[in-house]
Amino acid sequence: xTLSVQKRREKQKAELRSELVAAAHKLVQEEGYEGLTIRxxxxxxxxxxxxxxxxxADKQDILFxxxxxxxxxxxRRIEEHPADxxxxxxxxxxxxxxxxxxxxxxxxxxxxxxxxxxLPEGRSYEDxxxxxxAMKVLxxxxxxxxxxxxxxxxxxxxxxxxxxxxxxxxxxxxTFPFYPFGDPEAYVKRMCNFMVASLSAQDIPPLTxxxxxx
Amino acid sequence: xTLSVQKRREKQKAELRSELVAAAHKLVQEEGYEGLTIRxxxxxxxxxxxxxxxxxADKQDILFxxxxxxxxxxxRRIEEHPADxxxxxxxxxxxxxxxxxxxxxxxxxxxxxxxxxxLPEGRSYEDxxxxxxAMKVLxxxxxxxxxxxxxxxxxxxxxxxxxxxxxxxxxxxxTFPFYPFGDPEAYVKRMCNFMVASLSAQDIPPLTxxxxxx
DNA sequence: TCTCCAGTTCGTACATGTACGATACAACGT
DNA sequence: ACGTTGTATCGTACATGTACGAACTGGAGA
Lengths: 214, 214
Fold this sequence. Notes:
The structure is a homodimer of 214-residue chains. With 214 residues, the first copy, chain A, is mainly alpha-helical. Chain A folds into 2 domains: 56 residues, Homeodomain-like (Arc Repressor Mutant, subunit A); 143 residues, Orthogonal Bundle (Tetracycline Repressor, domain 2). Helix content of chain A is 68%, strand content 2%. Chain A has 9 helices and 2 strands, in the order H-H-H-H-H-H-H-E-H-H-E. Chain A has a two-stranded parallel sheet with strand order 1-2. In chain A, helix 4 packs parallel to helix 8. The longest helix of chain A has 30 residues. At the A-B interface, helix 5, helix 8 and helix 9 of A face helix 5, helix 8 and helix 9 of B. Chain A binds a DNA duplex (30 and 30 nucleotides) through helix 1. Chains A, B: Keywords: DNA-binding, Membrane, Transcription, Transcription regulation, Transmembrane, Transmembrane helix. Chains A, B: It holds the Pfam family TetR_C_33.
């Protein structure tokens, strides 16, 4: 029965942690992203400020938890998206992803633009794909395109390249809203179309293989 | 003679500002990026902490000043780069840029990955190209490629797309060093080659024109 | 039952960015 | 000469993240 006690402990801890995340979420909704402070959060749940640190390593950790929630919602939204043609399904990933990033710049930033990148306990990238469900969907849809003969090459490499461009696009649109990209959505579409068209014209080698020239 | 007095004032102020930047630079070199604090910086130049705020709006402003210095060095390095073939010259911009970003992740982050994007006084993107000299070189070399018939379309649009991909590449490599991109330089080369090859296969419309499909 | 221990809670303290307002001083108009 | 005004400097104070260690608590072994 020692294990069951352990488990109960863990469950209680997990519950309090989610309570904290929920409170943080509400706080952000009410007072904005920078309105979230440890002291306010602690007061919300009736704890002392330092007690929060029993559940999160630091403030960034809380922001990451919030962002992860948001990214899971994104993944769900992507998967719900109608996907008749595999190429359209792939493009839908990128446009949904972009819409999410532009609509949730704070969450996007905490995941992709901070120095403290948190890979939760495990050190491998496997964990990152686990923590970033959108990436899994992306790879799956790339594989569908490869299977349908619309794309050719290593699916992970293709997905990574798409991710790179998608991230570059979103990230610049977020950071330099005044730069004359034209309509943000149009620019996203442009990059999306450009990438799919260009990728379909080549056989993309896996990431481990170095292209020699340049 | 009122003007000359004004000017002397301004010059003195500018001098003190650069002295602060220099001190900040030394501080960062000696104690690392997070070792730079307002109090330490003030002590270095023999001022009270709050006096720093007569020369910089806030701490970010100091970091931006440091980063701008670094980016000017980058632009100089790029322009010094041998450039016989226009396409090679263009690729050199991207690889130098990437090398800079990977070698100076902190400076890169303060310019491209923070929320407080500072456009110094003017509100137009013209100022941004002024402040980011690397972009000017990029556009110039794209124009050379277009003139040589190696690329086709609107130079600014092509440059912006290259910038987008370059930024995405660097930014992901900085944020997720553990992700299996393979060798960072190889991945940079891959994206660089891919983009130049793909762009040369199309006629790129200006940014204001929306592609219809997707 | 008593002791001990691991883990949770939290009081205190410190470094930091920076808002606010006081002070001092230089240039100017009268 | 004298008040006025703008500006550079800075003392103080506050909010914030968080390090440190004390106090508590609930269960395990003696």
